[in-house]
Design a protein that fits this description.
about 230 residues, alpha/beta
Length: about 230
């Protein structure tokens, strides 16, 4: 069964496994690149990588409306519960869990994590997803780190990497990340939402093609690929 991966701009993705819909970092309201509104999304699970507003986004409102189960670190889950979210699944860095549709493992990410109201958001993370034998690594917000080589040893079908610079890896470090991870395919994210992270994704994809064996796929917000 094909897995459908749809980008909604910035770091937000919907992954439809056929058995469940997974929404990652649902920054929709206030996202100038989002092609949908928050009330159009009906996930079964919501994954939150860290506490910043452009990643927590509409998680509370969507979870309350859909009764989706939220997945993130322990601190963020406590905060979501305090906001009235009923179905939460706390995890932490290095830990994994087998859900009915597949496995989630939280990876390290070098970034910050404070929630919109100033509450401590614990350690930021990335997500390694194993669904129907396919492996997807969403790095979320991070700088380059050498342990990406270990993540790549999993044999990745898809990597999702920030290229925006300033707050995360820029194009040069994201290219180095591709070389460490060696995924079959890579999607650049976290660019052009704001002027301070403006980049040329096509230029970056051309560099990936020249310097690696990975296929770089540049999506427009709302576009999808299948695995």
């Amino acid at each position: 069964m094909a897995i459908k991966v749809t980008w909604y701009g910035h770091a937000c993705f919907m992954i439809d496994t056929g058995d469940a819909r997974l929404l990652i970092d649902p920054f929709i309201t206030g996202n100038p690149t989002a092609p949908v509104t928050a009330d159009q999304l009906n996930p079964d699970f919501i994954l939150v990588s860290h506490g910043h507003g452009d990643h927590v986004g509409d998680a509370v409102a969507i979870a309350k409306r859909t009764q989706a189960t939220t997945i993130s670190n322990f601190e963020i889950q406590n905060w979501l519960s305090s906001q009235g979210v009923e179905n939460t699944h706390p995890m932490h860095i290095g830990g994994g869990f087998d859900f009915p549709w597949g496995r989630v493992k939280l990876t390290i990410a070098h970034h910050g994590s404070v929630l919109p109201d100033g509450t401590y958001g614990g350690n930021p993370c990335g997500f390694l997803l194993i669904i129907q034998g396919r492996k997807i690594y969403h790095a979320c917000d991070t700088g380059l780190f050498y342990d990406m080589k270990l993540i790549g040893e999993e044999g990745l079908d898809l990597a999702i990497l920030p290229i925006g610079d300033n707050f995360t890896m820029g194009p040069d470090d994201a290219l180095r990340a591709v070389k460490l991870l060696q995924p079959k395919r890579v999607i650049p994210i976290h660019f052009n939402t704001f002027d301070v992270i403006r980049q040329d994704p096509q230029k970056w994809a051309e560099r990936v093609k020249r310097e690696t064996a990975t296929e770089a796929i540049v999506l427009e917000p709302g576009q999808s690929i299948e695995l």
